[in-house]
Amino acid sequence: MEAEDALIQEVPAEEVVVESAPTNGVNTPIEPDLASGTFIKVSAKGNVKAVAGKIAHSAREGEVPAALCIGPECINVAIKAIAIARTYLQQDTIDLSFQPAFRDADRSKKSLALYIAKGKARAPISTVDDVEMPIGSQSKPQVVAGALAARIREEKSVCLTAIGIDAVSNAVLAIGNARLYLEQDRKDIRAMPSFVQVHKNGRDLNAVRFALVVENI
């Protein structure tokens, strides 16, 4: 699996370019919520391990930059990088979670900022009693988000499992939409991605599992 390969060698953080918040020419940030720090622009063809290395390095040194993504391929790279960075940080007893936020009022554009937070590593979250929601390439993020929000309101533990680029993207978009749906309930969601294997159609396939942590706000 890719996660296992990633443990062999951590790619130096210097290989990833980290930028400051852009301006519109008059020193006014285009992204006000990103103005106070730096961010990583994730490319669809980016080196996943290099991005993971930058995230891990930033977590060891201080705050982790937000990851900016446009489109399913970029979102997939960013999520894999966060999952791999979590493995890099195990020996540092640091763990990571993320919260997706839409950067455009038109949520169908799939333009996201993934706000990555670090915390002290804890015992692995058990997903045995979770309601597992498999996400596919044809899943509609807003429909999934509605179902996800409903289960969270029922105080059920939920995890999402996705196989493939489009499915991973749909899962992240669903989490972003669910965050909006839950605002009136004064609840928020953090996601912790990891690599797992699932048995489907007689085969063992690599998948990304999103363990979800619900917070009261």
From TrEMBL:
InterPro entries noted in UniProt: Alba-like_dom_sf, SpoVS
Gene Ontology molecular-function annotations: nucleic acid binding
One protein family per Pfam: SpoVS
Superkingdom of the source species: Eukaryota
Entry protein name: Stage V sporulation protein S
Organism the protein comes from: Chlamydomonas incerta
